[in-house]
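Q: Could you write out the predicted structure for this multi-component system? I'm mainly interested in how the pieces pack against one another.
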Amino acid sequence: MTNDEIMMLINRSLFASIGYMDEAGRQNIRRVFCVWHKGIGRHLISTNTSSAHVQSLLINKKACLYFSDDETFEGICLYGDVEVNFSREYKKLLWNEGDEKYYPKGIDDEDYCILEFAAESGKFYRYDGKGELSGSDIMEFDREKEFVNGYSEYS
Amino acid sequence: MTNDEIMMLINRSLFASIGYMDEAGRQNIRRVFCVWHKGIGRHLISTNTSSAHVQSLLINKKACLYFSDDETFEGICLYGDVEVNFSREYKKLLWNEGDEKYYPKGIDDEDYCILEFAAESGKFYRYDGKGELSGSDIMEFDREKEFVNGYSEYS
């Protein structure tokens, strides 16, 4: 897969899967809504601070983020860290009308946080072969990119 | 979610995601074709022995298996172990016409193996709430069940 094809797979996905380790040392997966991307390497996910996966990621930030399309047999697994972010800038950027049903106190609700995933490397899978993505590949491709809602730009 | 609703989610899925740790200690996810189930707790997945995830699971068998439906906002994460199995019984059961394109030597191809995932516990997620599934819940539900192709029974 080319970097552009990987970017397209990420942009047309509404959801991704986070792989992380929980406090019991178990491998864990959580499906998350993930449409804000800064190139291939950085992704923002809004979620409830009190959720089990956020609490686990506060203890162990090593994680992977997986985007896939079961119809085209494409997948990309990114390896990196998750920072639990409370900046108003990110919280405002990802806020959608109606989010009060999840966060009754609005943007400043302390139960509203943004997970920022930053990739160090990756691996892609497709019917026609698999390959590695290095940190410098990602950095090169992402240079001068900004955070955008890839799904809304795509559709 | 009731156990029957969890079973239905599993049966109507063509794919699941395996979460495991690789040799570099990284959290990893791999999307796998997964339609053979023995109740909620046991699942068979055919794959290439030489694949990276099989090699990782031979070293560390702790894993999770995640089934989800993005349209109904349902997810089930099962925690357990993966055994890399070479029994002719399983290999015959999962063999499909045309699989020679993946395993040129047929059923006895040493690059053809079956991952057997056995759950110890689980966690489910749905719009209306989440909950835990204990090992004894799973054992009770799965009693006297046999391996079946849940997807073909469902569709």
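A: Regarding packing and overall arrangement: Chain A touches chain B at residues 14-15, 17, 19-21, 26-31, 52, 62-64, 66, 68, 70, 75, 77, 79, 123, 125 (CB under 8 Å).
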